[in-house]
From TrEMBL:
The keyword Hydrolase applies. PROSITE patterns: THF_DHG_CYH_2. HAMAP family: THF_DHG_CYH. It comes from Longilinea arvoryzae. This is Bifunctional protein FolD. Transmembrane segments: none annotated.
């Protein structure tokens, strides 16, 4: 039997519909539309395309977006000045500084400057720190990890006590998704490039989250039969037979793993659309925080 394929577009549509209805209710109650500021520095085509998708998705649910574009040569002071102005702007409930920033800029200092109450990416160290502490609540949870959790909750009757394996320990996905799984009472193993006997460790997973950025690294024989496999990877691989000359693959060898897993998320059409849906939800949450 082959795995159930998680339809990220359909799950994201559920979240968007909920956000859209709640935004409409706010507006009907005389409150302003939630506002999202996107900050794009430089002219990386992939970043431009992601920011365009985020602004389009915002408009579809009634979130107003404010696009800011700075040249690749922008100074640290210019970027910081913009973030400070957005922090002070009451129309802005969420600030998204598209990453990666050009190499001459200090990303950490920029992220540290974003108001904790407008940190819709959930990357501010205070929000990450609260995520890591028992009994503390972050103002925002990072979008991709939250999207992974939504997919896991849809696929596993009870997360408590399961073995979850996270492949990758990045600030933006691996570590926060591991923290969310711990908060949901899973037993969590974080694997990385120095892990010994990696396939054996991965094979213990009831739930596997692959977020290492290595194309099709997870093979069919690494996966426990029936496991839930969430593939966060977005990798471009050369493919002369495809019209564009490349295709997108995840960190999981989909064709092999779908024969073993119980549930699997595809790439594209899996976690990617969830990330954007969670950004919309977080922006609405930012507006709700500003009501108080
Ligand atoms: N501050 C910041 N926040 C981010 O959330 C952030 C970022 N920087 N930098 C880049 C990454 C990447 N990211 C994606 C969002 C949606 C898709 C997505 O929707 N992908 C579609 C395919 C889209 C296509 O094919 O063009 C899919 O997987 O089906 C992918 C990747 C957000 N990121």
């Amino acid at each position: 039997m082959t795995a159930t394929i998680l339809d990220g577009k359909a799950l994201a549509a559920e979240i968007r519909a909920d956000v859209k209805a709640r935004v409409a209710a706010r507006i009907a109650a005389g409150k302003p539309a939630p506002g999202l500021a996107t900050v794009l520095v430089g002219d990386n085509p992939a970043s431009q395309s992601y920011v365009r998708s985020k602004r389009k998705a915002s408009a579809e649910v009634g979130i107003e977006s404010f696009g800011y574009e700075l040249p690749a040569t922008a100074s640290q002071a210019e970027v910081e000045k913009l973030v400070s102005e957005l922090n002070a702007d009451p129309k802005v409930n969420g600030i998204l500084v598209q990453l990666p920033l050009p190499g001459h800029l200090d990303e950490e200092r920029v992220l540290n400057l974003i108001s904790i109450e407008k940190d819709v990416d959930g990357f501010h160290p205070v929000n990450i720190g609260r995520l890591a502490q028992k009994g503390r609540e972050p103002s925002f949870v990072p979008c991709t990890p939250e999207g992974c959790m939504y997919m896991i909750q849809k696929s596993v009757p009870k997360i408590e006590g399961i073995n979850a394996v996270v492949l990758g320990r990045s600030n933006i996905v691996g570590m926060p998704v591991a923290l969310l799984l711990v908060r949901a009472n899973a037993t969590v193993t974080i694997c990385h490039s120095r892990t010994r006997n990696l396939p054996d460790v991965v094979r213990q997973a009831d739930v596997l989250v692959a977020a290492v950025g290595k194309p099709e690294m997870v093979r069919g024989d690494w996966v426990k039969p029936g496991a839930v496999v969430i593939d966060v990877g977005i990798n471009r691989v050369d493919d002369p037979s495809s019209p564009k000359g490349y295709r997108m693959v995840g960190d999981v060898n989909f064709d092999e793993v779908k024969e073993v897993a119980g549930v699997i998320s595809p790439v594209p059409g899996g976690v990617g659309p969830m990330t954007i849906a969670m950004l919309l939800r977080n922006t609405l949450h930012g507006a709700e925080l500003s009501d108080k």
